[in-house]
Amino acid sequence: MNDQIDPAVFAELLTSLRRDALARLTARGEDIRSVQDARNDPAGADDEHDPEGATLSDEWSRLEGLRRAAAAEIDEVDDALHRLEEGTFGVCASCGRDIPVGRLLVRPTATLCVPCAERRR
Ligand SMILES: [Zn+2]
Predict the structure, then answer these.
(1) Which residue in 67, 68, 104, 105 is deepest, having the highest Cβ count within 10 Å?
(2) What mean pLDDT do residues 14-33 have?
(3) Which residues surround ligand 1, an ion (CB under 5 A)?
(4) CB-based contacts of 103: which residues, under 8 Å, 6+ apart?
(5) Taking the domains of the chain in order of start, what are their residue ranges?
(6) How far, in Å, from the CA of 120 to the mean position of ligand 1?
(7) What separation in angstroms does the CA of 11 have from each of 40, 83, 101, 105?
(8) How far is the CA of 91 from the centre of ligand 1 (A)?
């Protein structure tokens, strides 16, 4: 365990990140449903020739990308919370050294210290 970590501080930080990501996931899910409804609207059924059809597809792809990003963020936060419980939070997954608290405050889901993260680029 990284001794400089106050688990309570990071538990709170991660929980609030998770709440935000979950709100985004829900909001994008609703956006996607309304785009689907618009596409299924019989009035706009002429998808092939209707420029609106292409726009809706683009919008759907964009929203789907955002929805997936929010879901991935929730997974990362859950992993970090799990590490916090296990006592491995804040330890670099590559070299095993402590990740500086400053980095963790900016990116609580970080699994690598800065030098290791830079080597993987
Ligand atoms: Zn490292």
Answers:
(1) 104
(2) 97
(3) 92, 94-95, 113, 116
(4) 110, 113, 114
(5) 7-88
(6) 10
(7) 43, 10, 14, 12
(8) 8
8 Å CB contact between 44 and 50: yes
Q: Quick one: which of 82, 79, 87, 83 has its CA closest to 3?
A: 87
Q: How many Å apart are CA 28 and CA 32, to the nearest integer?
A: 6
CB atoms within 10 A of CB 23: 11
Ligand 1: centre distance to CA 12 (Å) = 25
Ligand 1 centroid to residue 74 C-alpha, Å: 23
Q: How far apart are alpha carbons 49 and 72 in whole angstroms?
A: 35
* pLDDT score for 106: 94
pLDDT at 51: 61
Q: pLDDT tens digits, residue range 29-87?
A: 999 999 999 888 877 555 556 666 678 889 999 999 999 999 999 999 999 999 999 99
